[in-house]
User: Which sequence fits this backbone?
């Protein structure tokens, strides 16, 4: 049956003013985008196709119309060139979504959606085609929204009255990465790119797969209270959707944190417990010690590191209910346990003459009070251990035993035990980096004992001042530590009190920046304890 040309009309599919030719039998064809409308006597024969002499190699089936069950108007449906067909019951049974070649603009295929089964069938091809809807939105607009499916694109366009460019992936969530890569130049031409994928696991994974290849300054991601945009429109939640769209969260690549996202970090930081040291002058300089801090205690040989560490261990156990892990690589568990018992008893029971002063029953009661009733864990490993073993042990203490504080004495022995180590500095760099990472990941407070190398000037055993440059092995110890506390003592002094007095010096303090002399500790031979002496405000030391 022939028909005659009647007039030119605006094309609702592409927006042209006069590219749609209307014919006497009611059918129409757009010479701009290829949009076609059936004759007025068409009754929905899904096998109907436009005459093969038409310039388009593939023709969609059906006719232009609204999709009422999805609240999609004929205006929006026609804008995208979407067509529908009806079954024998008169209800819509299929949708037809066209795809156009990116280079020629020709219709190359269409996706056929069965309404009843929700299944899809590709007729023709979408190879070389752009995203669904890409043909009707020119490059370089203000906003481009990308959805996971065609219905979602239609739904968003409906909710925005067709104002903004909205396109859909060709192959759903599974093809997100490929579709975005293939059309990246087009996507990047827009000022803002909004991802509005389904709110299920597949949609979230698709979002993750593409977010790092789109310019982060352009990208925003919508979070919806329902599964997808189509559900929002069907439930008349247009206002909720538009609010979610305008409030879409910007994306920042891994490792970069926007200022607007730091409140959560701040709350985590505020939740971290601060514990004061047992010595007042040190607290005035450091304001105590905190979880997520790596504190290095260092000195030359025989300066009293072990005594300071044991005082610190007992203090943590007595002042907190937190679990403490003790890793002493140069002493047995027996010696570590006796150290805690000695502090509890104010008696150096590791020395035989003092040990003999206590009965077995008294020792057991002392052990119960100082160790058994405390939240303390030891590591039964005397001597060197491998780097991997050490890191595994620390992670286990932190994650499996919920230890908030870990004391490692000392770092050098870990490195010296490694076979085939050619460069001690690099080896220490590596292990310090890993320790720092564990501290950040787990939130533990780590106390690390480290040795000093021989100074250029006055020897440490003669009271030489400690400096960061003297840390043995690697600058990474200083760089990756939050606080470094040096111990100074003149073992060669004439006066016994001077020989037994240790000066605390803070040589790095990331927390507040204060450094310098932070009090003195006198070792009492009769009690085996360190007692703060000659205390004055830390300000007097600067």
Assistant:
């Amino acid at each position: 049956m022939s028909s005659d040309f009647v007039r030119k009309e605006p094309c609702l599919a592409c927006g042209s003013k006069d590219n749609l030719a209307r014919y006497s039998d009611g059918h129409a064809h757009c010479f701009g985008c290829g949009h076609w409308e059936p004759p007025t006597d068409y009754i929905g024969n899904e096998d109907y196709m436009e005459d093969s002499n038409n310039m388009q190699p593939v023709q969609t089936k059906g006719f232009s119309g609204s999709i009422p069950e999805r609240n999609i108007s004929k205006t929006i449906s026609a804008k995208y060139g979407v067509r529908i067909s009806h079954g024998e019951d008169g209800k819509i049974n299929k949708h037809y979504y066209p795809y156009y070649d990116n280079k020629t603009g020709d219709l190359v295929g269409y996706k056929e959606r069965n309404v009843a089964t929700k299944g899809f069938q590709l007729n023709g091809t979408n190879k070389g085609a752009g995203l669904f809807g890409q043909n009707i939105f020119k490059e370089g607009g203000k906003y481009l929204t990308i959805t996971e499916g065609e219905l979602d694109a239609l739904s968003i366009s409906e909710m925005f009255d067709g104002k903004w460019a909205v396109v859909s992936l060709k192959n759903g969530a599974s093809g997100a990465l490929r579709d975005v890569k293939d059309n990246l130049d087009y996507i990047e031409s827009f000022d803002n790119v909004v991802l509005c994928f389904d709110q299920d696991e597949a949609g979230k994974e698709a979002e993750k797969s593409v977010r790092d290849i789109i310019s982060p300054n352009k990208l925003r991601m919508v979070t919806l209270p329902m599964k997808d945009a189509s559900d929002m429109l069907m439930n008349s939640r247009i206002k909720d959707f538009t609010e979610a769209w305008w409030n879409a969260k910007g994306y920042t690549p891994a490792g970069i944190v926007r200022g607007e996202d730091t409140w959560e970090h701040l709350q985590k930081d505020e939740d971290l417990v601060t514990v004061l040291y047992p010595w007042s002058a040190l607290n005035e300089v450091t304001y105590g010690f905190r979880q997520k801090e790596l504190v290095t205690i260092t000195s030359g040989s025989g300066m009293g590191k072990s005594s300071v560490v044991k005082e610190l261990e007992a203090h943590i156990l007595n002042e907190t209910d937190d679990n403490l892990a003790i890793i002493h690589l140069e002493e047995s568990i027996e010696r570590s346990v006796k150290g805690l018992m000695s502090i509890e008893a104010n008696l150096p029971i590791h020395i035989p003459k003092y040990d003999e002063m206590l009965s077995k029953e008294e020792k057991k009661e002392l052990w119960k009070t100082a160790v058994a009733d405390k939240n303390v864990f030891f590591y039964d490993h005397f001597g060197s251990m491998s780097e991997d073993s050490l890191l595994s042990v620390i992670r286990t203490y932190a994650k499996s035993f919920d230890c908030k504080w870990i004391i490692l004495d000392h770092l050098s022995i870990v490195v010296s035990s490694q076979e085939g180590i050619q460069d001690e500095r690099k080896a220490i760099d590596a292990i310090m980096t890993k320790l720092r990472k564990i501290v950040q990941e787990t939130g533990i407070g780590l106390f690390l004992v480290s040795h000093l190398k021989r100074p250029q000037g006055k020897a440490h055993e003669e009271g030489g001042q400690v400096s960061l440059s003297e840390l043995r092995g690697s600058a990474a110890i200083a760089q990756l530590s939050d606080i470094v506390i040096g111990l100074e003592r003149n073992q060669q002094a004439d006066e016994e009190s001077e020989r037994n007095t240790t000066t605390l010096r803070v040589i790095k303090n990331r927390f507040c920046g204060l450094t310098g002399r932070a009090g003195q500790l006198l070792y009492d031979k009769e009690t085996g304890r360190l007692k703060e002496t000659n205390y004055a405000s830390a300000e007097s030391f600067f």
User: Anything to note?
Assistant: The CA atoms of residues 425 and 474 lie 5 Å apart. DSSP finds 18 helices and 24 strands in the chain.
